[in-house]
Amino acid sequence: MVEHGDIRVVHRGGSKINSREPVISSDSRLLLCASGECVKVFSTSTEECIHDLRGHTGLVTGVLLRPSNHLQAYSCSADGTVRLWDFTDGILIKTYAIGYPIYSIHASPNHERVIFIVISTLSEKKSELFQLVAVHLPQSGDRLVEARELSAVLSDVSSNPAAIAFGRGGEYIVSAKGLQLEVYFFKKQKSYRFSLKENNKKGRKNTFTCVASHPQDDCIATGHEDGKIRLWRNFSHKKEYTYSTLHWHHSVVSSLCFTPEGTNLLSGGVESVLVQWRYNQESQKDFLPRLGAAITHIVVSPDGALFCTSHSDNKITIIQSCVKVSAIIQGLVKGESLSTDLMVDPRSKAMVLNGKPGHLQFYSLQRDKLLFNLDIVQQEYIHQSGLQQFEVVKAAFTASGNWLASVEERKQKDAELELNLKLWMFDEQSQSFVLNTTISAPHEARITAMCFCQSTDSQTTMLVSTSKDGHFKAWQLATPAHTEDDGPSWSCDFVGAYHSLVPECCTFSADGSLLAVSFQEVVTVWSPSSWELLTTLSQPPGAIRDLCFGKLSCSKYLVGTTANNLLCCWNLLTCALEWSTSMNTSLLLADPLSENMAAFCPQAGFTDLFVFKPNEPRPLYSHKAVCSGNVTRAVFAPREEMLDSCEESSQWLNHSQLYFLTQCMDLMTFTTKAEEARQMAASKQLVIDDSIAMTPFHLLLGKHRGQQQQQESGQDSLSAERTPLPQGSAAIKELLQTPAHILPSTSFLCSMFVQSLLISVTDSREETKHVEEEMESEKEEDSEEEEIESRAVRPPEMARCGQATETATLTKAQVKELRRVKKLDHGWLSSVLDL
Amino acid sequence: MASYKPTKITVYPKLGEKVTQDTVYWKNYKAPIQIKEFGAVTNINFSPVAPHNFAVTAFTRIHIYGPFSHEPVKSFTRFKDTAYCGRFRSDGQLLVAGCEDSVVRLFDVNGKVALRMYKGHTKAVHVTDFTSDSYQILTGSDDYSCRLWDIPNATELNAYQEHTDYIRCGVTSKLNTNLFITGKMETAAPPPLFYAYVLISVMTLDHGQPVESLLLYPSEGLLVSAGGRFVKVWDLLKKGQPLVSLKNHHKTVTCLCLSSNGERLLSGSLDRHVKVYNTTSYKVVHNFDYAASILSLALAPNDESIVVGMTNGILNLKHRKNAEESKEISGQQRRRPSYRVFVKGKNYFPKQDDYLVSKPVKQHLAKYDKQLKKFNVSKALDTALEAWTRLKKPEITVAVIKELDRRGTLKNALAGRDEQGLSRLLYFLIGNLFDPRFAPVLVTAAEMILDIYQSVIGQSSVVDRQLLRLQEMLEREIDYQQELLEVLGMLDTVFASSLPRKEVPCSAISKSNGLTQGEGRLQLQAT
Fold it and tell me: What residues does the C2H2-type domain cover (chain A) (predicted)?
């Protein structure tokens, strides 16, 4: 029996940030965007995430600044609530329960205390019909308010938030759906509908995709599927409306936006070019090309200085007045398909997978941030739908991280498969991978698997690739014979085949002395030094799906899974089957740092996880129903610092952490309770009360007051003044450890820092001065001394005691509080140790 | 905003020889000078003293050429029959030559008539040489004998009768007066090593083929012999142990020569090649091709010139390029900007409160890339098909066609061309379609052209002719490929029958790793 006591499956970042349009705060310093179940607040200048607004229990479907208070924001979610936030401090102010899943949210300054939301038509829950409803927000002091006063405004609207816009001064609201444009005038309580023909002469589609309305003029801009932009005027009359057409985009216009003054119209689409049209001089346009990926949303800051585009590759670009890209906020790129395996770069410890078309992305798991994209294909990406592009399909790292191999392929119908194998060397000087060798057409058909020889002590680096053409090839790094040549390059060392069967997977043993290649149901074991076929192992029927060599003490075992629901473990010394079990394994992977192996087994729509050691047929840990659907990609990421958990069930998480991707491309991981607690503490440490503006005047006055207070407290202040000695280190620690974007102003820190240095002098002087000190304070000092010692012993524990929030001047009460916290911490620690 | 990524031009591995220091060194010669002699040039010998004239023995004459003139400085014509082996003495004053009429003649380099005549051989004398003390002459003759002559007295000092066949080559030691080596015609004949005082050979080495040429290393520790297709190197200090046998020529090797620093060995052969060997690794590092079979070869001191004599009587001279000359060429290629351009703005020192305005670095793009960036596909293809690019760098044209294909706009770029444009395109295809490096890309383009211009075939005679030619070449290529496949099949059968059959050791395993194991079931119980 295995109990999984405190191990939990948790979401680990990487959620979409481009699903809804972002919002720029009125001072252009912050950017809010919906990301999964929370709203993320980014700084527009440093690109850092400042905080998450957590509270929603469903997908956040819209974020909006509150029109009456520019420091507050509404967010709506599929969980049926609208929440009001103070986004600078990250505080939830109010929750309005609506009761229906909300798809988008709109508001206008002319409609006070009313917000407009899109919900599905009430009659059927799952219908595809949506309606726009006005919600009157009741005024009450409670945090949770029921808002049930709904009144329908428009029926049959699009669920896409871009298809609804408020007109000039909130007098009317525009909605587009299909081939119809509907304008509803609030004063007249009347709506006009304008419809277009389905196709024009040339068979272009006229379907509306997005709507924007001019802030000062009665003009509506609509984007269409064929790339046209129409400017509608005079629409307050049903018959006499006019429209003019702008055409630059060659495919769908996905977003339109007017600048706040109404002088420019911005449009974007698949071409990934931001087009700026002059209002009333439409022949003049400016372009900002090559933004990286298709534009999905365009937003302009309230003062018009910043533009912000979100892109289909989970990226938000901040642009300074259509000239210069000033910041890029990049999330984890998750395309429709993940073709490479999840990998961990041994150098940066970043997770590596294919991201943008033709790129490999390096994603930091610790910081939930995309580190960089490595351009593999090195070709201009043509933003055009329906075009076959080169895709990165396979990648592999050596154990040291010095070499990276990547395979890119492009398959056009009725043309030859184009295949390139590229080998990249890590360049110490530029700290990035540099292309070393390109092998065009390394195989005649698709490459099914690729792996490096992982042993660290061998002289040569070797790569093995298996292909559908029935061969596997070994590539070796060879130094050229001619000394004048520049550096080593890769060449083919061996081509192997077995009975013209198709090789599916390959793996090297930990010491690099054996290579196992599976040919359908046969596993062949080769010696890479002599390229001799040593033995064959087979377990028919059923083709081999995964192969893994055991590590460390289990290195004599080879574990394989077959398509026929069998997990087999062969002993390589006896060349015989050690044990086997029938389980349908979709994915098998080995922890690089321990003997453990993890197997994901889909069962009745859910996936179970089993962790075991190859030397005994008994799972160390098992977890039923890890997630719904099938798990196809997972990786063991080595930890930065080892956990020292002694519990048997969580021991397997000591060396590395297991990450996996679910079917809906969510990145999940396993954590223990202790680890979560530590993370909570770390995140708490980061919170700094910077709500009070730090003016120089305040600093002076505040310090003065603090000193006065201390003087008033008299003798007792001795201990308060003495505390800064150990505090000095904490101040430095805070200075060094806190991320730059949440640090208070330098002047503030500086005074604190200098003060912490000064204390030691005053301290010694005071000691000489107050020789005839009371016993009580001596005792206090003693206890303090003890604490300093304990601090020396366990510095990491001290770091998370939340001292970062303390200012330089502490009152006695605060000091006592602090001590109490410290003691509590000790007690808890010792209890952990006793366990 | 990322910058435009230019079209990637695939770099193909260069076929043929690699550029090494050797090829650079040996290629650094001027265009050859050809001089017609009266008959086959059998021997070339450089004078050891400056100005390093060389004696060319051809038919009944010996011509002496200066280092720069193309006319003979001097010629000795008083031979009654074919002359052989004109050699200079170490002071460059005397020249000895054998003759078909068995008389050995000694000339003063400045004189005209022979100073001495050495009579005693009964048949043609092919080998003559001065010994290292320069007072004696060694000769070898077709009468199987080898004689040593005193120069002033013209008397025979010694005769060695040990050979059993014609003596065709010989060399005297430059360090030891009494040592010389001769090689002879007979198959499986050894080149014996003689000591003058001892009447018998001190060492006999078996070359295996008739020895055509002999060469001693300057240190005289190693001996090189050429005979048949082989060049062999012997270690004389280890009792004539064979060191290496080089088989790089496919016809008889006729002459040997060492480069001035002794690090390269040159061999000339009837197969019209001169090969240059590295004397440490004995690998061929360079190769010269000549028009006819080579009989003689000599290198001037410091490798200033290579002189090769051939069977058709042509003397081929190659002089080394001067240092300035070789530099001049590279200088011409890189036109350097004037001094003013370099100094511009460099002598300005920023003042205290200057504000530096950084200018974005402009990305340089090739012309076709500029047009591709603007999506002008037809123009980009036109640029890539310009005469220079098309002829000199076809890989650029192919790369642009590939890029257009990737963008899905190749059809647009190919369409709408007039007769001239189309014929230019077809001309490029005819030239490069059958290059295996370009074929995958160009076949798609060719198919598209045929699709597009199907309707207008027959309207222009130029285009029709080119299309017919393309078809003809295609058929020829298919035949050729088929033939190659046949050869491959034949080779496979040959290899298959010659390889020993190897058993895969799996008989014992197949039993034990079957489905029989039931006891090791994984106990999966989970909460």
Answer: 33-56
| Rounded Cα–Cα distance for residues A25 and A71 (Å) | 8
Question: Kindly report the CA angle at B300 between B298 and B303, in degrees rounded to 5?
Answer: 105
CA A216 to each of CA A27, A110, A167, A769: distance values in angstroms, whole numbers, following the listed order: 22, 14, 9, 74
Q: Is A663 left (phi over 0), alpha (psi -120 to 50) or beta?
A: alpha
Restricting to B residues 396-415, those with a Cβ less than 8 Å away from any Cβ of A are 403, 406-408
What is the number of domains present in chain A? Answer: 4
Taking an 8 Å cut-off on Cβ atoms, the answer to whether B4 and A380 are in contact is: yes
Let me know if residue A753 belongs to a domain: no
- Phi-psi region for residue B206, left (φ > 0), alpha (ψ -120 to 50) or beta? beta
In angstroms, rounded to a whole number, what is the distance separating the alpha carbons of residues B219 and B111?
Answer: 34
Strands A619-628 and A606-612: antiparallel
Does residue A202 sit in the same domain as residue A228? Answer: yes
Alpha helices for A264-393 (secondary structure H): none
pLDDT band (50, 70, 90) for residue B478 = very high
How far apart (Å, rounded) are the C-alpha atoms in residues A659 and A435?
A: 29
Q: Considering only CA atoms, which of B42, B25, B28 is closest in space to residue B315?
A: B42
Better-predicted residue by pLDDT, B490 or A149:
B490
Task: Give residue A531's region: left, alpha or beta (phi > 0; psi -120 to 50).
Answer: left
What is the ipTM metric for this complex? Answer: 0.72
Higher pLDDT among residues A801 and B98, named by residue: B98
The answer to whether residues A26 and A175 belong to one domain is no
- Provide the number of CB pairs (under 8 Å) joining chain A to chain B: 116
Q: Which helix or strand (DSSP H or E) is residue A503 part of?
A: strand A503-508
> In terms of domains, do A403 and A546 share one?
no
Q: In this structure, are residues A156 and A164 in contact, taking their beta carbons and an 8 Å threshold?
A: no
Query: Average per-residue pLDDT in chain B?
Result: 82
**Pairing mode of beta strands B294-299, B305-310:** antiparallel
**pTM for this prediction:** 0.67
Whether A530 contacts chain B with CB within 8 A: no
- CA-based nearest residue in chain A for residue B407: A382
The CATH code of the domain that includes A22 is 2.130.10.10
